[in-house]
Amino acid sequence: MRVTVVGTGYVGLVSGACFSEFGHHVTCVDKDPAKIDALNRGKIPIFEPGLEDLVARNVAAGRLDFAVDMAEAVADSEAVFIAVGTPSRRGDGHADLSYVRAAAAEIAAAVRGFTVVVTKSTVPVGTGLALEALLRETAPGADVEVASNPEFLREGSAIEDFMRPDRVVVGIQSDRAQAVMAGLYRPLSLNETPVLYCDRETAELIKYASNAFLATKIGFINEIADLCERVGGNVQDVARGMGLDKRIGPKFLHAGPGYGGSCFPKDTLALLRTAEQAGTPLRIVDAVVQANDTRKAAMADRIIAACGGSVAGKRIALLGLTFKPNTDDMRESPSLAIVPRLKDAGAEILAYDPEGMDEAAPLLGHALSFGADPYAVIDGADAVVILTEWNQFRALDLARVARLLRAPVMVDLRNVYGRGDEPRRHGLVYHGIGRGEHA
Ligand code: NAD
Predict the structure, then answer these.
(1) What is the pTM of this model?
(2) Using CA atoms, how far apart are residues 317 and 297, in angstroms rounded to an integer?
(3) Would the CB of 11 count as within 6 Å of ligand 1?
(4) Is 35 in the pocket of ligand 1 (CB under 6 A)?
(5) Per-domain residue ranges for the chain?
(6) Quick one: which atom of ligand 1 is closest to the CA of 123?
(7) Above 0.90 for ipTM, yes or no?
(8) Could you tell which of 15, 29, 30 is best to mutate to test the pocket of ligand 1, judged by most ligand atoms within 8 Å of the CB?
(9) Pick from 10, 249, 331, 371: CA 20 to 30 A from residue 45's CA?
(10) CATH superfamily entry for domain 2-198
(11) C-beta of 211 in contact with ligand 1 (< 6 A)
(12) pLDDT digits (tens, 9 = 90+) for 353-401
């Protein structure tokens, strides 16, 4: 089948490359000429494990190409995916649909023959209906239907998630649109991946409800972690004991500095705005959002407390800046809340991140300096803080860490070394998350 994907970010580029791997012919379009130039030179504008090989293989096979102008590709396509950003609208937290609308207007001008326009971007309930009206207004003669196919991939394991998803959700209004979507996902349905067909509004809501639920799990365990610190118990063991119950499950029960990233913060907010407008407040999600904001801000105070109540004139080594490992994405990362507060408190900050330093530089470069590796930033520091659980921080030589530090303080906001007493054995004063006095 012939497919166009509009937007070559984390979702668009991965989806496009994976659809071409399924055997479809895919054109990925982006309005940013620098991205398309890079892709045409075999350079991937984002860090996502495995993506470079996947793209190269499918370009070589003639199934994947890139363009700035979408007209030609859209005219030939049976399905056109919109995978552009839907950030929080400044000031009110509604999803900003301006990129989606601009893409839809351009698509409308280019469609020929029956075309399914698919929102892969996360869009509020009712957007599909509104886009269909926009398409009909812009191109009255066009034979189009808007489908909703929200994406559930995670940055860092995006290809695996796309190729082996727990489920595919497709919101459609007609049998012929369903037939197009079924053809696109045939390789997955042949592999027994559940493909859930539903109406468009249901599909749009499944995405937001799923993200809000996952954010709630994180928010919940973070508060249990706070309780452990006061009353005793180790939150990692509490989470394990809870997660072994199949009704609960072990995933998303890792206490930490609060969720960040390009999705949970903006999607929880957008869902709250939708619910408010509909007059059905979502009190649980509201509490989760507030608790998470408070938590991120409180993390710097924890670091300051671990340093004896003041970081003025002290040097802090930060390991990890991205919102999670295996990505270069800095959007809403807890580091963005923590670094300025430490800086304001008088700390000198040295940071290392395996992939995120280029993205971090324009956001945090004024407040910190970068080091070439973990030990370079730890050398002479008054405390080391693990902020993102990259694998290489799981394999630190703790004897060397203890030797290099000026003061032996380790603040581990991801509980990488939360089990056992390895840091203590090396003479480090260890501060994890959610550990009571005797735990
Ligand atoms: P991104 O910011 O990485 O990429 C968006 C791309 O769209 C950019 O390259 C931009 O230049 C391009 N673009 C914007 N307007 C365009 C237009 N009119 N024509 C062509 N290109 C255009 O975004 P992302 O992280 O890939 O997210 C895309 C959508 O997918 C969002 O709605 C997001 O909520 C959703 N989503 C993201 C993830 C994730 O992990 N990143 C997971 C699931 C869903």
Answers:
(1) 0.96
(2) 18
(3) yes
(4) yes
(5) 2-198, 233-431
(6) 32
(7) yes
(8) 30
(9) 371
(10) NAD(P)-binding Rossmann-like Domain (3.40.50.720)
(11) no
(12) 999 999 999 999 999 999 999 999 999 999 999 999 999 999 999 999 9
